[in-house]
């Protein structure tokens, strides 16, 4: 059984910053990819950022230069540093990890006010 616990969401003004964390526990060994998706009201879930075990990263074009993904393999934790936030970043953010299959966090709300 895998559990993912997210934290760090909240309300912030445009231009502000937030840092999301997602800690994995349970049967988690040698996690492959980790990352974040988001889903805004009325929109499909979209990939925000992903990172491999070796540290290679991938970002959505809309967040490049503003968001930074990182991971601590010893802690089985993935982070998302979000800077220069915009109202269009408002969404529920979901972390995921890839082992034999994908496991998802419960989601954390990020709201950016204009």
Describe this structure in words.
This protein is mainly β and 114 residues long. The chain has no helices and eleven strands. Strands 2, 4, 5, 6, 9, 10 and 11 form a seven-stranded mixed beta sheet that branches. Strands 1-3-8-7 form a four-stranded antiparallel beta sheet, with no helix packed on it. Strand 4 and strand 5 form a beta hairpin. The radius of gyration is 13 Å and the shape is globular. The model has no long low-confidence stretch (mean pLDDT 96).
Provide a compact summary of the structure.
The chain has 114 residues and is mostly beta strands. It is built from no helices and eleven strands.
Secondary structure elements and their pairing?
Layout: E1 2-7, E2 10-13, E3 18-26, E4 34-39, E5 46-51, E6 57-59, E7 67-72, E8 77-82, E9 91-98, E10 102-104, E11 108-113
Parallel strand pairs: 2-11
Antiparallel strand pairs: 1-3, 3-8, 4-5, 4-9, 5-6, 7-8, 9-10, 9-11
In helices, the fraction of residues equals under 10%
Proportion in β-strands:
over 45%
Determine the oligomeric state from the structure.
single chain
Can you summarize the main beta sheet? 7 strands, mixed
Distance between the termini: 40 Å
Low-confidence stretches: none
Overall residue-averaged pLDDT value:
96
Query: In terms of structural class, how would the helical and strand content be classed?
Result: mainly beta
- What would you report as the Rg, rounded to the nearest angstrom? 13 Å
Order of helices and strands: EEEEEEEEEEE
The count of helical stretches stands at 0
The overall strand count is: 11
Shape type = globular
């Amino acid at each position: 059984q895998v559990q993912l616990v997210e934290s760090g969401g909240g309300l912030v003004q445009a231009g502000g910053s937030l840092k999301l964390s997602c800690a994995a526990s349970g049967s988690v060994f040698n996690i492959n990819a980790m990352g974040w998706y988001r889903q805004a009201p009325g929109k499909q879930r979209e990939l925000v950022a992903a990172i491999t075990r070796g540290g290679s990263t991938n970002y959505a074009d809309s967040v490049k230069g503003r968001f930074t993904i990182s991971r601590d393999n010893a802690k089985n934790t993935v982070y998302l540093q979000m800077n220069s936030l915009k109202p269009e970043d408002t969404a529920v953010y979901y972390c995921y990890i890839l082992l034999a299959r994908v496991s998802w966090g419960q989601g954390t709300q990020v709201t950016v006010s204009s």
